[in-house]
């Protein structure tokens, strides 16, 4: 384990979450056994890759997360959607949560805490329930999509609401963790979570080999790093000979990392009041920005931003041409891909995977905003509508 701020190094220590010297973010480096081979693996989902997941797990808390569909576009091109909405609570957060909650249980914690824009909350609440842990969620008041809030309530979490943005909740959780060692934090500054999320890369590689590009919606920026880490580990072992270019996609009103990459700056300028309809990436101060910028640079990738109109259009297009429903933050990857094609730096013949991070049902309000024909009818004469349409189109 190594601190990305001060360089402090340690043997693997499952209790270690932030740097004991400076409080910075830790990286976990994993060396896969040289015998690692996809053909020897058993089971499906995150724990199929347990040889690659750092740490010891006497007990694993799992709800069969991972193993999500990689759906090829109907155009027949080598373009795929990794549908993370198919996870048990409807987002990729479950991949990280199974590892983090299992770690917490193995280390003897009884209380867990997370700040969240919603999906971490829903996932943490479900896994805590399964593990029998007490959970406190810190949510931005009135800023959480209704599906996610409803899940957190259903799974029985205690919900602490704060005025303002997610970033305020995140700061409060970091402070609590540092002052009160008995609570286990489940946010993505916890590097153990990313050990689970990296299995997205393992699944993609096992199914279709190495893509040219992977498009990832970026909020707190843990996931893009986790996916890059997965590909890097496979390359270091010689299982693959290159890694995909990682493309981070942010929402325009919350795009500190994309702007730093575009303007060639060393560090992002944080956004005080992030705004976007894509609430899961409505984050102004991404805690994992250093890790994300490393992943983007080392993969020779890039980052871009898309506006809310482009996000909503992408959500509709994905639903109405591919039959896939994803929440607004999730389709930032698709909106970003469309923009990259338009700008000409990605070709339609490139092999591309877009990560669709969460399910459309998470945010019903966003779906209902789409236009649809809804007609009050006489139930005895439905044929009038259809005949009228046929006439109009002939
Ligand atoms: C958490 C989340 C993201 C952002 O992931 P980060 O690791 O914070 O960058 C994107 N989309 C959805 C649906 C999420 O739940
Ligand atoms: Zn440090």
Compile the SSE list and pairings.
Layout: E1 2-3, E2 26-27, E3 70-72, E4 79-83, H1 93-106, E5 111-115, H2 119-131, E6 134-140, H3 146-154, E7 158-162, H4 166-179, E8 183-185, H5 191-197, H6 199-208, E9 213-217, H7 222-236, E10 245-251, H8 256-262, H9 289-298, E11 302-306, H10 308-322, H11 332-343, E12 352-356, H12 364-368, H13 383-393
Parallel strand pairs: 4-12, 5-6, 5-8, 6-7, 9-10, 9-12, 10-11
Antiparallel strand pairs: 1-2, 3-4
The protein binds pyridoxal-5'-phosphate and zinc ion.
Residues 91, 93, 119, 188, 217-223, 280-281, 327, 329-330, 357-358 line the site of pyridoxal-5'-phosphate.
Can you describe this structure?
The protein is of the alpha/beta class. It contains 13 helices and twelve strands. The strands form three sheets. The protein has a six-stranded mixed sheet with strand order 3-4-12-9-10-11, with helices on both faces. A four-stranded parallel sheet has the order 7-6-5-8, with helices on both faces. Strands 1-2 form a two-stranded antiparallel ribbon. Strand 6, helix 3 and strand 7 form a beta-alpha-beta unit. Helix 2 packs parallel to helix 3 (146-154), helix 5 packs across helix 7 (222-236) and helix 7 packs across helix 9. The radius of gyration is 21 Å and the shape is globular. The chain binds pyridoxal-5'-phosphate and zinc ion. The site of pyridoxal-5'-phosphate has 18 residues, from helix 7. One of its GO terms (biological process) is isoleucine biosynthetic process.
